[in-house]
Amino acid sequence: MAIPRQSLRPNYGIDAPNVIRNLLLAAFIGIAVWVGTMLAASSGRFDIPRPILAVTGIGFTTGIGCGLMAGWMLWDSRIGKLRSREKLLDRISWSGNEQVLDVGCGRGLLLNGAAKRLNTGRAIGIDIWQAEDLTGNNPAAALENARLEQVPERVSVQTGDMRRMPFGDGTFDVVVSGAAIHNLYKAEDRTAAIREIARVLKPGGRAVIEDIRHGSQYALTFSQNGCKDIRRVDSALLGVLLMLITFGSMQPATLVVRKD
Q: What is the pTM of this model?
């Protein structure tokens, strides 16, 4: 019996499902209230005060914005992040024998992408597998995606806290992390995670960190922990656009770091 085509494709889940749900709810409420108000006003049976019309108009505009943001997040989860993965990993000049760590690996997006660039090297992913950060976030999903990407022999995962990583100093040639460190809500926890990344990097090792906020904090912490060679390679224009659309919630940054 033929295997369904979709079962042969890796599934890297939906990012921030609770955020998407809230955006869709806000979109529905904002648009529904505006439509109800407009219908009531046009019927002639109700005298709707102008301030209420103005407020519902703002709610409609906000609802449209929330709906578009939710749609973009869904598209990015299914399609966009696979494209972004390759661009991100192209920031590294690979030899194929690197020891790689993916911090906050989730279902293995960067982990498996890095493993595909290895021959004698290995890629290890750590995570604490929070479902609110990613749908179906668990070790089995990461390993199944590794199988579907045909790199299971070069991949392993383990449960680990990025603030206290279970690896020795100078273990890895490359450390990657995508949209994970911001899930540590306290600044001191994010600092601890970046400090740990710097610690487990070999001298001359490279880190590529992509996140939706806190880029300046990450850069400062790297510079204080033996990683002076720091390049910010994200698009300034896209960053400003996303910051405006999300009212400052998203301030994306991509850092390419080399340990001294």
A: 0.87
